[in-house]
Design goal:
globular, Cytochrome-c3 Hydrogenase, Chain A, domain 2, 5-stranded parallel beta sheet, alpha/beta, binds ligand FSX, 3 domains, two-stranded antiparallel ribbon, Rossmann fold
């Protein structure tokens, strides 16, 4: 009997639900494309996943707004339904599970016992260290629940900026003493999937990678998967040609904004924000904030909320181009080109080294 035919395997479950091999292969092709893997990996992924047992997943939610769960329910490739029913066994999730109270806690305890060392722990929300009673579940503090559940996990996925860096709860003055998952757990592989909330297909793509390879994807120095966080929003933004030409909207309702010019001067944080919004987009690939007329607010970067005003331009181009554009459009365009050249050379060097470019570095170069 092939592994994919064994009772309890994902393959057997797919067959039972009437999913054909061809359909599953198509699904795997979409996922490999999303993960920037070679097309040949689709077959490997199909074999690996269908022969495996459904992955036990425990999802803990701490100090957060439930935006991350809201977001994952919008996943289109794979859909949440695919994941829950076909690929994983979501053994604990406050918002999505049917069980409540003691039954829910029993489900967490038995998933931990039955899958010791093998289950995947997903965490959204930050952990309050100021006082254990600031946030509790079933009378257990967030800290205690995290430490207890992390112990037997194979790996941890911190989803959302709250879990990855502290996020909104950690914003000054950080009244609860909020910290991130990696501030507490030091002895487990942690994949950071920041964003407030994160892009749905990025969350599910990370899960699909783990299911296929049984390992975590290649991460950058902030623990983020390089396949999704390797480039800035600015690098892939469709308004980028306007930036390069020095064409900027000055207000949200001016003619330049109507023409779709660059939103940099209105505070767009795209140049220093690493995420896949411009390519993966949202709502089944429909759009992303910049496409709907608002600059990127940098929600997937550390210190989001504490990094400065949302509507103030990042650095020099505001004053440089204001002066130059006042005199001549051509001069403004030239400024854009020069700035772009500096930023690009910085970024390509950083990319080669898999380093990050910071606001400070861009500011320094552009002065
Ligand atoms: Fe935080 Fe997520 Fe922002 Fe909200 O769970 S990342 S506040 S979208 O909900 O944690």
């Amino acid at each position: 009997m092939k592994p994919s035919e064994k009772p309890g395997s994902v393959g057997a479950g797919l067959k039972q639900r009437g999913v054909t091999r061809r359909e599953f292969l198509e699904f795997c092709t979409a996922v490999t494309a999303m993960l920037a893997l070679p097309p040949s990996m689709a077959k490997v992924m199909a074999e690996a996943i269908s022969g495996a047992r459904r992955q036990s997943v425990i999802w803990l939610s701490f100090q957060e707004c439930t935006g991350c769960t809201e977001s994952i329910t919008r996943s289109h490739s794979p859909t949440l339904e695919n994941l829950i029913f076909d690929l994983i066994s979501l053994d604990y999730h406050h918002t999505l599970q049917a069980a409540s109270g003691e039954a829910a806690e029993r489900a967490r305890a038995s998933a931990m016992k039955d899958n010791e060392g093998r289950y995947l722990l997903i965490v959204d929300g930050s952990i309050p260290m100021g006082n254990p009673s600031y946030s509790t579940i079933a009378g257990i503090s967030n800290y205690d629940m995290l430490v207890e559940t992390a112990k037997g996990a194979a790996a941890i996925v911190a989803v959302g900026t709250c879990a990855t860096y502290g996020g909104l709860p950690k914003a000054d003055p950080n009244p609860t003493g909020a910290v991130s998952v990696s501030d507490i757990v030091k002895d487990k592989p942690i994949i950071n999937v920041p964003g407030c909330p994160p892009i749905p297909v990025v969350m599910t793509g990370v899960l699909a990678h783990f299911l296929t390879f049984g390992s975590i994807p290649e991460l950058d120095d902030l623990g983020r998967p390089k396949s999704f966080y390797g480039e800035t929003i600015h690098d892939r933004c469709y308004r980028r040609p306007f930036y390069d030409q020095g064409k900027f909207a000055e207000s949200f309702d001016d003619e330049a904004a109507r023409q779709g010019w660059c939103l940099f001067k209105l505070g767009c944080k795209g140049p220093v924000t690493y995420n896949a919004c411009a390519t993966a987009k949202w709502n089944d690939g429909t759009s992303f904030p910049i496409q709907s007329g608002h600059g990127c607010i940098g929600c997937s970067e550390p210190n989001f909320w504490g990094a400065g005003p949302l509507y103030k331009a990042l650095s020099m181009p505001v004053s440089a181009n204001t002066a130059m554009l006042g005199g001549a459009v051509a001069a403004g365009a030239a400024a854009g080109v020069v700035i772009t050249w500096h930023n690009r050379s910085n970024k390509s060097a950083a990319k080669m080294a898999h380093d990050k470019v910071t606001v400070q570095e861009l500011t320094r170069e552009e002065k």
